[in-house]
Amino acid sequence: MSNGRYRAYPAYKTTGATWLESVPESWDVFDGKRIFESCRETAHSTDEQLAASQKFGVVPQSLMMELNDAKVMLALKGTSTFRHVEKHDFVISLRSFEGGIEYSAYTGCVSPAYTVLRAIKPVVSGFYKYLFKSRPYISALQATTDSLRDGKAINYEQFGAIALLLPPLPEQTQIAKFLDHETAKIDRLIEKQEELIRLLKEKRQAVISHAVTKGLNPHAPLKDSGIEWLGQVPAHWAVKKFNHCATIRNGQVDPRIEPYRSMVLYAPNHIEKETGRVVYRETAHEQGADSGKYLCLRGEVIYSKIRPSLAKAAICAEEEALCSADMYPIKAENGLSDEFLLWFLLTPDFTATAVLDSERVAMPKINREKLGAYKIPVPPLDEQAAIVAYIEKMTASSDRLMAEAETAATLLQERRTALISAAVTGKIDVRSN
Predict the structure, then answer these.
(1) How confident is the model at residue 354 (pLDDT cuts 50, 70, 90)?
(2) pLDDT in tens, 270-300
(3) Which H or E element spans position 432?
(4) What pTM value is reported for the model?
(5) Which residues, by range, are in coiled-coil regions (predicted)?
(6) CA distance 433 to 426
(7) What CATH number was assigned to the domain covering residues 28-166?
(8) Angle at CA of residue 341, ends 336 and 345, nearest 5°
């Protein structure tokens, strides 16, 4: 980072620390236990229960529920064994070795499973908020936990043995202010890329929906489809029951025997949502498949029937393959093409209808009878081919733009990470910024 805009400090000294070779000459280096103590203060009766997460830091449980749009576990038997947390304390959570130590902007209490860190030297919490989340420091945490089982927390002794940097207080303040300002700018740029991706996805789905339900001729006369969620369709299109123009293959095979053992096995997690793309392939043997699967043939549509993955479908690319019992292999027929059927199954309106129907059964999925009873629009075959070609052209363009935006967001995130690491370890001098 010491190029162009940023310069290095005029002089450095060696640290003796395994994770950081040198620091600015004016900075001190101490073991973590000499800067932060393990605070075991009992929760106050008025304390609100807090939760720690890598994404949001230490926040009230109520806010965590709102941010995650989900329920979290409250202490039903009270918080008498919990630990008090002051604003500006830090918390070692169960997964700290993966994502760093969490900062608390709130006063409250946390589970005794967490370790509360409180400064015993004058520090600027904003500086350590960035240091504890920096890539070099997280690597140092991970180096202390090589022998720990997955899910086991870092203890205070391990934290305390890791060297910590202690710049002069004015520099801590300046570094924190600098990073607040610079990361906010980068975050705004990332948000713009993410918003662009969101809009492109919406446009992509709108293009697909309009093409497979209204066709490509904006002047074509329309008729009522008789389907509430579908509305009007071109007057010359047929509207057929699903099971009159498509066959849902039945009968399972044993993936542990040949030739099925060597076949590619499709599962919902192999298919990207809403795009029809297969993201990776494995054979039944490679996946360790040990229960019944469906046989599918080249060109057939493979459609996920389980609610969380209802917008996942793809065309089978192999002469013969298997699909998970959570998916249906479907052969379009009687004037319906497989490709047109694929894009129809991926429309938001059809997915929303399938989601509603899946919620009405004990197991959240679309059963064969329900899927077979749906009515779908069926244009003439030449028009289906034109619609599919148009969708593939338009989605290829939007996919390219989305990929460019995702690359830009990734590069910005990498720059953010590198800038934080460089600033909190003294690789760049930001005192004049």
Answers:
(1) confident
(2) 999 888 899 888 999 998 888 999 999 999 9
(3) none
(4) 0.82
(5) 179-206
(6) 14
(7) 3.90.220.20
(8) 150
